[in-house]
Amino acid sequence: MILVTWGFLAVSAWAGPTLHLIGDSTMADKPKTPPNPETGWGQALPRWLSDEVRVVNYAMNGRSTKSFIDEGRWATVLAALQPGDWLIIQFGHNDEKADKPAVYAAARGAYQDNLRRFVREARDRGAK
Q1: CA triplet 32, 63, 72: central angle to 5 degrees?
Q2: pTM, rounded to two decimals
Q3: Rounded Cα distance, 25 and 29, in Å
Q4: Which of 20, 94, 26 shows the shortest CA–CA distance to 58?
């Protein structure tokens, strides 16, 4: 963390790499209040990394590649991505729900297209 000051104004800027996580419930943060039998792997990930790595977890329960885009969540992530950041993507089991049009993304169509979009647009921002 770098702290920059100008007179009465102090601004902090993160100096290390940032991992941006996008995905569904498997990755999502869960409430920490007991009883809490569930923890998404994205919630646990920072415990295994050094303090020099920041993890920002945008994953949400019930989301698919389609709903993540449609709800504006991808636009939020895209706006936050900086050159040198990392994007980790984990979707799949909600995309396959053909009986739920709000989340369904055909495996050999929209699902692949959405994944390619995430990668292309992240790379365009200089992220890995």
Answers
A1: 105
A2: 0.86
A3: 8
A4: 20
